[in-house]
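Researcher: Please translate sequence to structure tokens.
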Amino acid sequence: MRIIDLTIDERINGYCATAVCSYEWYLAATAGAEENLKIQRAIIKDSKAYQTLRADLRRGCVLPPLVLAVSHITLPAGLSPATLSDAAQAPGFISALQSQLIKTSPDDTFIIDGLQRTNALRQTLDELDGHPEEKAKFLARQLRVELWLNIAFGAVAYRMLLLNAGQKPMSIKHQVEVLSMKLKDDLAAIPGIQILTSLSAQRRTHAGQFVLAKLAQAFQAWLQGSPHIDVKNIVMAQLLAESAIDILGTSLSGAAVHDDFKALVGWFIEMDKVLWPIDSQFFANETVLLGISAAVGSAQRNDTLRDRMKKSMESLKAATVSNPSILAVEQFYELRQGEDVRKVNIGEFSREMIYRAFQEFFISDGTKKMKECWAFGASQA
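Model: Translation complete:
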């Protein structure tokens, strides 16, 4: 792997190294990505286009540049936008970074653009088993990559959404889920959290355990301010994408998006601990996470509701610590079970009910009882 250029994106305050590498280096650096795809985006195996791509790869075709994010890189001392533009100092920075990036760990490497091309490379390599000469030639071929260094989750999400907004090759859901492993890294520092993956099949055994895929969807619901993330309508998807870009773009210092969503996850953890003895599954429920996240995200960007929301969330947590029945989860279950499953999509109804209930709670400045809010939410769902 050889870095040929180093630059800074001043919009997202992130350094990007452009490099040329062998297929062998790239496949080693991204080992395990296919496993991550199982909770992100389905691997395309039988498509005629990708069959053709694999055949072309064996013939030596050139792929468009792939994009990676790399974490836990120690930036060279003295590196800044000003020193980077100094022709005398830039080679030293590049050399220092190259010595680290050559031995990049797959655990610190995230595929931002090129999941399917990565899979095509790996499948082609598998097809060359039994052909050692052709395999060696294949692994030695060159690939162009962009390596984003220590880039904040919100900045990566912003860049991905912005670049895909026009053509929409991936849904918003998939774009955020692609970054779920990066999200895991960002949320891991929250006290009391244990992030589980779908692959581990590990069951919750204590409060504070959350499945990564559910947190990724909660982030998306928070970002959109909507509990319904499986959007099929093209016009609505476009509006949501533009809203997400605006949200992320107005807080590219990273602090707002990063800290506000982390605060919400911290709230989930504290509430999960309080409720665990009487209901260990309420905050493990994806529907609950989506509904609350959407309501909080929507209020976060409303000048009138923002302060009310924060005050209401804190007062609800304090009251629930003193008396867990304050949350009135039994009322939530009764209202949900009272719907006719032949006439109503219970998942959509539940998400909307939670979303509307917490909106009402925020509007009341936390003065309404949750039992009343659940009833209001059910009437509006």
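Researcher: Any highlights?
Model: The mean pLDDT is 84.
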